[in-house]
Amino acid sequence: PRLLRASAAPRRALSTPAFCFDIDGVLKQGEHVLPQAKQVMQILSGNNPLGKKYPFICVTNGGGSLESERCKKLTKELEVEIGEHQIVQSHTVFRSLVPKYADKPVFIVGGNSDRCRRVAEAYGFKHAYIPADLLAWKPAIWPYHKLTEKERSYAKDADFSTISFGAILVMHDSRDWGRDIQLVTDLVRAQDGVFGTLKPANDAAAWAPERQIPVHFSNPDLLWGNEFSQARFGQGALQESIAAVYKLVTGHELQRTTGGKPTRATYDYAASLLAQQYTADSPASINLRPTGPAPSLPGRVYMVGDNPASDIAGANGYGWESILVQTGVFRGSKPEEAEHVPTVVKRDVLEGIKWALEREG
Ligand code: G3P
Ligand code: MG
């Protein structure tokens, strides 16, 4: 248990509303931090007529770095202190998979360089391999890319003809879809999760859905919003591409699970962290590994998102208020134009928060 600090943060009035912010398309557009986002953080940190502080958390289908690293980057970007207890990423819920795969080889897909391998190892996966390791082993496995010196510097040396993988974890957006479609398909149709092998075509038992190597995607986003004028393809588009090619080459449906928003596991975890902000004596005393179902929150929760299919669907499904902003994926003007109808549509995160605080009185 963490030691409680003497100086306790003031306990919040139990009717105080809480806020949950999506990141891409709400607080940021690509690397550009919206000025409105910085203003909102000032307001929630006490710079408001009541001098009140409001509990809040950032929940993103993004990822690619440790939560402890991401919150430091967000602190700099938003110019307020963001603690590890205030960030949930798409793969944060993969921590719950560690007991099952800690000692098994896992294939990690997505993100820049070997960052997701390092996140997986920090979570507790002891044998995490990435696509660069396979290209170092047999360059012909994906003939369209020659490993760079930098990639060689972090590629792990291994003989994959002797390694039987336990699972595939797609942790972030792929930087080479062709390579990753090829390698994931290779591994899913392999005998016992060994690259370069193939399940016998006539062995129906080997191809049974329950015998397939588990494939865990960290979010379902078909689209996400950055600074381009139209939404960009996300991990959901890669997932559908892999499933389509896998079906074409094997005739079988790809069995897979998906985390992130709008799944309940991600919202349960976010709610557990938010709830602690009302009662914790200090951020350091917040349990980052909450177990069990999320406690009900004392005040309303307002989720601000740009993606109806992840942010609004998740918030609505969780009984939270949903504010759909027009700075990311959603480019409409009326709630009914969204596939998942929000409580309200607002121009940006600042208009959204002003509306919510006015509504709360
Ligand atoms: O990879 C990022 C994207 O899928 C969505 O991120 O922050 O809008 O949930 P976010
Ligand atoms: Mg977004």
UniProtKB/TrEMBL annotation:
GO-annotated cellular components: mitochondrion
Domain of life: Eukaryota
InterPro entries linked: CDP-alcohol_PTase-I, HAD-like_sf, HAD-SF_hydro_IIA, HAD-SF_hydro_IIA_CECR5, HAD_sf
Residues forming coiled coils: none
GO terms for biological process, alphabetical: glycerophospholipid biosynthetic process
Name of protein: Uncharacterized protein
